[in-house]
Design a protein that fits this description.
Order of helices and strands: EHEEHHEHEEHHEHEHEHEHEHEH
Radius of gyration: 20 Å
CATH topology of the largest domain: Rossmann fold
CATH architecture of the largest domain: 3-Layer(aba) Sandwich
Shape: globular
Oligomer: single chain
Distance between the termini: 40 Å
Mean pLDDT: 94
Low-confidence stretches: none
Number of strands: 12
Strand content: 15-25%
Number of helices: 12
Number of domains: 2
Structural class: alpha/beta
CATH class of the largest domain: Alpha Beta
């Protein structure tokens, strides 16, 4: 069987869909993946994926009547059809993903209208899948899409350690300047209301530097520059990661003892690399963005409000770090 997975964006959602490819490949399927170009590096070197197809959806939507856009979409359609999938799995459940999924020419398996972010887009699918009872986390919900294909699920947790197979000179140079034990703090968020606040991150970092002795390192990405600068001002001894591609970022994350962030993509990548991770969820989040559904699959997800204390997050962080170190010691 040949399967095309369509999950275009964003970082965390792509990480949450990785088990689809891993299980399909383990069952003997040949897997392709259609992804937005800006995230293509996240799948580089993934042994479960035979072909990665890149879409420039942001540029196409900004220039919908451009001859170049139509030409590129036509070329993508030809490339997808040449892959000859038996089934296309639209994990995203949006109009843009549904339209691109139809390009491949195969029956489209996706979520039912009730389970989609854009319910009306279900009309473009061939089979609407209801989420399995008891599937609370989005990773387990995504795996429901394998049932209509007759593919068993043998592994559930996202695994992005393939990103570590090749070296990253930029990451190695940065890591060479860091202490052996450090924590990564990512103050940025896609929406301002999801951010925890630089003052809280600084207080948490200071607490964890005292016990259990984790040197503070600031993580950031495009759009996070201002928050990273504010956190740097509050933590003058901290180091800030340099601009890195996904592979380089993965190498830095993998060496960390802890990763703390809001509900944002990097925390899920850290979790998929086996790093103890805490995601902080803003109160009153949309029903699709709550700790039970969207937290790190292996790590911890904490909701917070005005009464939440830095001390409570620190206690959870210390427990995660010490448990991870205990497991490593036992494996030696």
């Amino acid at each position: 069987m040949r399967i095309l997975i369509v999950r275009l964006s964003a970082m965390g959602d792509i990480v949450h869909a990785l088990p689809l490819a891993a299980n399909a490949r383990a069952a003997g399927a040949t897997v392709g993946w259609l992804i937005d170009r800006q995230y293509g590096g996240l799948l580089e070197g993934n042994p479960a994926i035979e072909r990665v197809f890149l879409a420039d959806t942001r540029r196409w939507r900004s220039n919908p009547f451009s001859p170049a856009s139509w030409r590129e979409m036509g070329q993508l359609r030809q490339t997808l059809r040449a892959f000859e999938p038996d089934r296309t799995v639209d994990v995203q459940g949006l109009w843009k993903s549904a339209l691109l999924a139809r390009m491949a020419g195969a029956p489209v398996v996706s979520f039912s209208a009730a389970a989609r972010r854009e319910p009306s887009s279900a009309i473009l699918g061939s089979a609407g899948v209801e989420i399995e009872r008891g599937a609370v986390h989005v990773v387990d919900q995504n795996l429901s899409l394998l049932a209509p294909l007759g593919l068993p699920v043998s592994r559930r947790a996202p695994d992005a350690r393939y990103l570590l197979e090749r070296e990253s000179p930029a990451a190695s140079a940065f890591l060479g300047a860091l202490p052996a034990r450090f924590a990564l703090y990512h103050p940025g968020a896609a929406r301002a209301e999801k951010a925890w606040g630089e003052e809280r991150y600084a207080d948490l970092a200071s607490s964890l530097e005292r016990d259990p002795g984790l040197f503070p390192v600031i993580s950031w990405g495009p759009g996070d520059e201002d928050r990273a600068a504010l956190l740097s001002a509050r933590l003058p001894s901290a180091m800030k990661i340099p601009p890195l591609d996904f592979r380089g970022l993965a190498h830095v994350m993998a060496r960390a003892s802890l990763f703390v962030a809001a509900d944002t993509g990097p925390v899920h990548l850290a979790d998929a690399l086996g790093v103890p991770a805490i995601a902080l969820f803003v109160p009153g989040a949309h029903r699709r963005n709550v700790p039970e559904r969207n937290g790190p699959y292996r790590g911890a997800a904490l909701g917070y409000d005005h009464t939440a204390s830095v001390e409570s997050v620190a206690l959870r962080a210390v427990a995660l770090v010490r448990n991870a170190e205990k497991i490593k010691d036992e494996l030696r």
